[in-house]
Amino acid sequence: MSKSSRATAADVARAAGVSKWTVTRAFTPGASIAEHSRERVLQEAAKLGYRPNLLARSLATKTTNLVAILVDDFANPYKLPVLEVLTQALQAEQMAAVLININQHFDHLSAILDADQRQVDAVILVGTDFKDEALNEQALPASRPPLYVLARESTIAHIPAVSCDARVSMAEINQHLWQRGYRRPGFMSGPRSLSTALGRKQHFNTFWQPHCGAPVPELRAGSYDRNAAAQVLRAYLQHTSAAERIDVLMCENDALAIGAIETARHEFGLRVPQDLAIVGYDGDELAATPSFNLTSYRQPLPQMVAALIRMLKGELPPQSLNLPGELLIRGST
């Protein structure tokens, strides 16, 4: 074998004095093979620089160990830790991620069809704007890979979702704010999506509207971006007298809350929390810094990803799960 050629399983088999199928079993997790044979194969493979051809293996196993991850809101800083934990967990199970950027030129249906052509084993939706008409069973090919939603709720019956329990988390947040004496709440929302809804606003309003006797004001940022949060809060504060303003603002995620804190403090001179208390959601590391000291709710990201991985491996039936997180009480409330 020349130095420029790539070592094959046959080369390793000859060097180790075993059959080609023994080499295959040595690199197959859980395969039946004597330990001394496996060690000899791995030693010779290391000498030759041999690595199994995963593409060729996929033809035999009919699985590629590839998982497509669809993301449509890269402006949301929480996506980075989500992708970090998710890809690390996939790699630990010998799976690899194919990241697909959803944008105005490449929609969700196009991405799913593209992923199907690449023979991925599953598609994970990690974003906000997944529309019913694009994801209904009639629009998708019958042979498509299974779809999952991570870190958001799904309202489409055939797409399971693993998310933080909105009912439990908002009950904890609402109780905390009520005990602190806040009585004029507002809610800052992000993108308005259809198929992957967030129950945070619903559960917040369900608690506060009867307690306050009036609808909860909604500040619609339209995206999970601190600049969008700054713009919508700026407009609210400019057009609302101090006597009529809310005394606590619940933000749909930490990116919005950080933008709100910066605007309230530096543009209007408001004290947080004395003049305006602010709450976020996600448990982002930046929110915990002294500059923001933001009360937030940490999503159980490792547990959510672990449950999703078990579904991908067939150890858990595909199903929607809502897992409890942790309320992080800090100085912003």
List strands and helices in order, with pairings.
Layout: H1 9-16, H2 20-26, H3 35-48, H4 54-61, E1 66-71, H5 79-92, E2 96-101, H6 108-117, E3 122-125, H7 132-135, E4 147-150, E5 161-164, H8 166-179, E6 185-189, H9 200-212, E7 218-220, H10 226-239, E8 248-251, H11 254-266, E9 277-279, E10 296-298, H12 301-312, E11 321-323, E12 326-328
Parallel strand pairs: 1-2, 1-3, 3-4, 4-5, 5-11, 6-7, 6-8, 8-9
Antiparallel strand pairs: 10-12
Pfam family, one: Peripla_BP_3
Protein name: LacI family DNA-binding transcriptional regulator
GO molecular function: DNA binding
Written account of the structure:
There is one protein chain. The protein contains twelve helices and twelve strands. The protein has three domains: 9-52, lambda repressor-like DNA-binding domains (434 Repressor (Amino-terminal Domain), Orthogonal Bundle); 63-164 and 301-324, 3-Layer(aba) Sandwich (Rossmann fold), CATH 3.40.50.2300; 166-298, Response regulator (Rossmann fold), CATH 3.40.50.2300. The chain has helices spanning 9-16, 20-26, 35-48, 54-61, 79-92, 108-117, 132-135, 166-179, 200-212, 226-239, 254-266, 301-312, and strands at 66-71, 96-101, 122-125, 147-150, 161-164, 185-189, 218-220, 248-251, 277-279, 296-298, 321-323, 326-328. It is an alpha/beta fold and 333 residues long. Helices cover 39% and strands 14% of the residues. α1 packs across α3, α8 packs parallel to α9 (200-212) and α10 (226-239) crosses α11. The protein starts with 8 loop residues before the first helix and ends in a 5-residue tail after the last strand. It has a six-stranded parallel sheet with strand order 2-1-3-4-5-11, with helices on both faces. Strands 7-6-8-9 form a four-stranded parallel sheet, with helices on both faces. Keywords: DNA-binding, Transcription, Transcription regulation. It comes from Vogesella oryzagri. InterPro entries: HTH_LacI, LacI/GalR-like_sensor, Lambda_DNA-bd_dom_sf, Peripla_BP_I.
